[in-house]
Structures are given as C-alpha cells and as structure tokens.
Amino acid sequence: MRSQQHIPNTSTEAAAAAAFLRGRTFSIGPSVRLRRPSLNPRRHQTPLRRVLDSRFEKPADDPDDSIDSPSPWLSGEGGNVADLIIANYRRIFNRPLVDENDSLTSRELLWNVEGIIYAHNFFAADPPVYIYGNKVGLQAFEASWDEFLGSESTATTNSSADAQQDRFALLKKAGEDGFVDIAEVTRISLKGREVYLRNGPLFTLEDKSGKKVGQAVYMKDWAFVDEESTK
Question: Is pLDDT above 50 for 1?
C-alpha cells in the first residue's frame, strides 16, 4: 500500500484451519495494475480454502512466550483488528471472509487464511503503521508478528517518488470507493526482498460509528520476485 508523506508466543499449540478475480486490468502508475471493478462486488469473490491441518507452526523467529500467553493475533488489539477486518469485508462484499460455521473462532480462521491479509492505520496515524498481518502475510514480508506490527507501511514500497505516488493513489481510490481490486502490486519485505502481491481487494476499515480507521488487503497469490524470475 502507498501513502502520501503527509497523510496520515504464544502457545506452542493452537487450532487452525484455513477463480481469480475476473475483469480487465488498467494501470494507475508503472508499479500498480488494477482490475476494473464490477457493479456487483460479489463477482470478485472466490470461496476461501481452509487449512485442513489441526495445528500450525508459529514463525521461526517469533519470541518464545509463556505457554499460557494468548496468541497476539487472537486477543487484545490484534484480535480487535481481526474482528474489524472480518466485519468490514462482509459489509463491503456482502459475504463472509472466513467460514462462520466453523468450530474454530473467526480470528483463528483469519490467521490461517491461505492468502495474504494485512492492515495499516492509514486514516489514524501519520505515518501509518501496520496493525495486523496473518500467518501468510508475515511469511511474505519475512517478519515476525512483533517485527511487523508498528513498522511503517510506507517502507514496504520502493522509495522512489513514482512508486510512492502510485501507492498513495491506490490508497486514496480505495478510501473514496470503499475498495479497489488489484491485479498485481510489488512490495518489499522487511528483509529487503521484492514480493509480488496478486489478485485481491484493498478495502477500507470503518469502526462501528462509520469512522474510517484503516485499510486492509486480502491477496490470494504472492511470490518473491527473485524466486519467480529464476523459473
């Protein structure tokens, strides 16, 4: 996600579960390709697959917390942001982001979605920082939960003026329209690797009063640029 300069462990065990968007693409800049949205947002959605394994491994570089400590993505502020992402996805697209009939909690399912989900507080802070990343999102950005949360979202985009302007245009459009469908965008992990994020929406997060408090991304596909270029 791109922003303008002036705009504003866990237990060792936890239960887990986990058609490309169609439409023509168009560009708002050299580093972002968007999908032309349909009048019916449901057309852009595809059923989510869930991880069938009953366990998940936490990121290798996560700090070792007490076995009795709740996972930060399931409780506290992390859990609250997860609820916000789930509620706003349903509000905008009129369908659930996770299986609401599953025996696991919606927060657990969001953490294990087979796609990248992350959010930043675009409307609430200057500069905006990341406030959520699910398991796959942390893998793509090569970061632990503690490393990712609080890091500036601007830093995960190329620092060139063109790239930053493209990013801000994308965020602004999503803020005005509620969401934007993205075909492909390039971001930079916390370790400096370029990563392609593909096929999914960037959507605005509102609190219960209707105040805009951030934006979230759900990307169904991703790949490190250096690994894909060698195939």
Answer: no
> Which structure tokens are listed for 131?
């406030």
Pairing state between β 194-206 and 179-188? antiparallel
Contact 201, 178 (CB under 8 A): no
pLDDT (average), residues 122-134: 93
Mention every residue, 6+ apart, whose C-beta is less than 8 A from residue 159: none
Distance CA 96, CA 46 (A): 11
DSSP 3-state percent helix, strand, coil across the chain (nearest 5): 30, 25, 50
The identity of residue 189, as a single letter, is S
Q: SS3 for 38?
A: coil
Residue 176 has pLDDT above 50, yes or no: yes
CB burial of residue 165 (10 Å; 0-12, 13-18, 19+): middle
- C-alpha closest to that of 45 among 223, 195, 179, 173: 179
